[in-house]
Amino acid sequence: MKFKQPQTLQQIATLLNVDYVGNPDFKITGINEIHVVEKGDIVFVDHPKYYDKALNSEATTVLINKKVECPEGKTLLISDDPFSDFNKITKHFNPFIASKQSISESVIIGENTTIQPNVFIGENVIIGKNCVIHANVTINNSCVIGNNVIIQSNTVLGSDAFYYKNRSEGFDRLISGGKVVLEDNVELGASCTIDRGVTGDTTIGAGTKIDNQVHVGHDTIIGKKCLIASQTGIAGCVVIEDEVTLWGQVGMTSGITIGKKAVILAQSGISKSLEGGKTYFGYPAEESRNKLKELAGIKQILKERNNKK
Predict the structure, then answer these.
(1) DSSP assignment, residue 252?
(2) Fewer Cβ atoms within 10 Å of its own Cβ: the N or the C terminal residue of the chain?
(3) pLDDT for the residue 309
(4) Predicted pLDDT at 46
């Protein structure tokens, strides 16, 4: 998430009421999670296990809960609770705007786009030309939709990320300040849920087609011309490259990459990144030929064991 105007280290420290290490005039241009940080960004870290990763990332300001040696060319914000202070930054620079009507006045809608009854469209949404948005679709704040997009009934764009910190008094939610981007010629089936990014964009690439009842987690990037069948669940921060096919009820963990033109057969579970150009099956998913051979071998062993009884 980029700020509308660059801030200084001292300005952010004053906002958070925390100490800092570095030049008070050091320029900060935004905040981001560790997997998408760039120069000028703040990243937060609150566990010693991840200190080195955050300090050595592309981020040039680290919001951290311990005073440590500051890497050259970077600055630190020393916080008792980096998670809460990260939320404070999000709320300050990207506050939630409540809508006063079903289709907000700030919405931009392109020519020949059809909006069916009972659609909700939040603030600062952009919708391209020749789209069809069916009844009861919800498009939350700041979503961007390209041209020739079709969204079937009851789908929700821009729901908050499923991202919590476990505290003794309960779960504390990380506020979502990102958005959802649908590129040209995307089609979404009925009752899909596409979560907004926490700090970046959840993106579905041009020409991708998604079936009914599919969930896409926060900050996930889906490439061009992918096919995703019903009841698939994709966790946050996943990268799915171009022309990937996911058949029904595939589930995958966060932070992995599925290579270009991979095919994942129905009801497979993906726990690690997979190379492109291959077909996978099972849990944990492996190349389908090998997995099917394993299953045939197990079946043969059981058959032989039963015959000996």
Answers:
(1) E
(2) C
(3) 65
(4) 94
Q: Active-site residue numbers?
A: 218
Please list, in sequence order, all residues whose beta carbon lies within 8 angstroms of the beta carbon of residue 42, skipping any fewer than 6 positions away.
Answer: 12, 28, 30, 31, 32, 59, 61, 62, 63, 77, 86, 89
* Residue 83 CB contacts under 8 Å (≥ 6 apart), including other chains: 44, 46, 165, 172, 174
Contact 60, 244 (CB under 8 A): no
Which tens digit of pLDDT belongs to each residue from 16-55?
999 999 999 999 999 999 888 999 999 999 999 999 999 9
Q: What is the mean pLDDT of residues 224-251?
A: 98
Give the global pTM: 0.92
* Phi, psi values for residue 92, rounded to 5°: -70, -45
pLDDT in tens, 61-72: 999 999 999 999
> In this structure, what token pair is assigned to residue 28?
């900060």
Tell me which of 3.40.50.1820, 2.60.40.10, 3.40.190.10, 2.160.10.10 is the CATH number of domain 108-289.
2.160.10.10
The Cα–Cα gap between 105 and 110 comes to 14
- Alpha carbons 26 and 40: distance in angstroms, whole number: 9
CB 139 within 8 A of CB 159: no
